[in-house]
Write a structure and sequence with these properties.
There is one protein chain. This protein is mainly alpha-helical. It is 52% helix and 0% strand. The chain is built from six helices and no strands. The chain has helices at 2-14, 19-22, 37-45, 66-88, 97-106, 120-134.
Length: 142
């Protein structure tokens, strides 16, 4: 009895499936609102000549062989694992960030800790302007 009910349920649900829409071997309907609907319909009616096997181009000569691809993939995965190991060893944490910042600041040499002198912006801008005035513009494109 249960088998009969299961078969009946499967048969009734099977009617909900539209096989032409499910299978990839049939073409679907063309949306008539599309701006290329006429061209698509025409191409579906007359697809044109099919190529011959003699028209297949020769294999390119500048493609690396399979073993070279394999080696490149293995090397890339090894680099990924090394990067992950390095990242796991980083001491960065989102907790106690001020202690981490103090440790990192202590690593900065003292001479690099001093702020730039007053007026350095003007000196930098003056130097940049002098370099712009000295510069030779590139030639005009042909």
């Amino acid at each position: 009895m249960a088998a009969l009910l299961a078969a009946g349920a499967a048969a009734s649900l099977g009617g909900c499936v539209d096989l032409p829409k499910v299978t990839p071997f049939t073409s679907g309907p063309v949306d008539s609102r599309s701006s290329v609907a006429n061209e698509v319909a025409e191409a579906a009616r007359s697809p044109g000549p099919y190529p011959h096997f003699s028209e297949i181009p020769p294999a390119p000569k500048d493609v690396r062989p399979g073993e070279a691809w394999r080696s490149a993939v293995i090397n890339t995965w090894a680099l990924k694992r090394a990067t992950e190991r390095e990242a796991a060893n980083l001491s960065f944490t989102l907790a106690n960030t001020e202690a981490w910042a103090q440790t990192e600041r202590a690593r900065i040499p003292p001479k690099e800790m001093t702020p730039p002198p007053a007026g350095s912006t003007e000196a930098t801008e003056a130097y940049a302007q002098s370099q712009r005035e000295r510069a030779t513009p590139p030639p005009a494109p042909h």
